[in-house]
Amino acid sequence: MFYFLGKAEVTPKQAVENISHLFTEKKSDIKQKKVPEKKLLSSKYTGDLYQWLGKTPEELQKHLGNPERKDLSAYGYTWWVYTDQKQQYIQFGVDDNKITSVFAMGKSVSAEPVKIGQSYNEVKHAFSFPKEVTYDKGLASYQFLLKNEDVNARPLVKLSDNLFMQCYFDTFTKKLSAIRIIDGDTLLKHRPYELKYRGSLPKTEKLTDAEWKKIEKGMEQQIFDMTNVVRNSFNKPSLKWDDSVSEVAYLHSKDMAENNYFSHYGLDGTGLKERLAAKKVFYFAAGENIAAQYPDAPAAMHGWLNSKGHREALLNKDYTNLGVGVYKFYYTQNFLAKPM
C-alpha cells in the first residue's frame, strides 16, 4: 500500500448564524438498565454508556427496548435514537451489526467518572485535554490537532487504542452538556478536527438522493428532540413541531447549499419574514438559526448552544413552535411564537 504524509483542514469551515424578528402580524425519562458485564475499558470507566461500544443492536434492544427511530447517517451507519423528548436523549450508531458510537445528553446519563452537568475543571481533572490526540491503525497514523476553541468547547479524550470521547461543553455555564463516545474509524469519517496523517483517509460515502432525503429527515428530528431536551434543562417550555415552518426552513437550507452562500437573506434579498409570508405562516414573533458544514446534527446543536444569538433563540421562553430544515450539511431552525 502506498503511504504518504499529509496535513489538512479536513473539516470545512463550520459556521452558525442567528436572526431574531419581532414581526407584528396583528398580533419520560429513559430507564437506565444494567448493561451486559463484558467491558472494553479499564475499571476507571464505570458508566454504562462506555460498555455499549462493540455490542450488537440485538443486545441494545434487549436492554433498552425498541428505539424511537432508526435514522440513517451520512457515514454509512444508522442511529438508533432513544429519547423521552424532555430530560434525556441518546443516539447509538450501529454499523455492520455493532455499536460504534454513542451520543448522549440530558439528565441521568451514566458516564462515570464524569457526568452531565459537571464543571469544565471537574471533567478536566478526570481526563486530560491535550491539543494533539493520536490514532494508529496498522501502518497508518492519524493525529487530531485541536485549536484552543476546540479544547474549551469540545475536547477530545483518548479512552483506549481505538476508543475516544468528545466532551461537549456549554461555554456559557462552563458545564458538560453532552458526550460522544466513538471508535477511531468512525471518528475519522467525521473528521471534526484538523488532521495530520500518514496513510489514507476513509472514502466519503456516495449517497443517492433518496438516501440523502432519509438522512436529512433524521437530522431534522434529532435537532427538534435535542432542542426540547436543552430547553427542559433550562426550565423552558417544550416546542411543538410545525410542518409548515419546517418546509420554510428546508427550502432555505437547500437554497444556501445549491447557490453556495450562507446568510439569512437569499440572493434575491428576501429574508425570514418574506419566506414565512410566502407560505402563509402566521405568528407573533419569529427567529432563525442557521449552520453549515457541521458533520451531523449533534455537532450543529452544540455550535448553536455556544453562540449568544443562537442560544437566545434556543432558550426563548416565548417561542411555541419549531420547524427544522436540513439539506446535506446545511441546517436551519425557524422558531415561532403562535397563539395558543
UniProtKB/TrEMBL annotation:
Q: Which Pfam families match?
A: CAP (PF00188), CAP_assoc_N (PF14504)
UniProt domain CAP-associated: residue ranges: 53-193
Domain SCP span(s) in chain numbering? 225-334
Recorded hits in PANTHER family, A to Z, give: SCP DOMAIN-CONTAINING PROTEIN, SCP-LIKE EXTRACELLULAR PROTEIN
The name under which this protein is listed is CAP domain-containing protein
Organism, as annotated: Tigheibacillus jepli
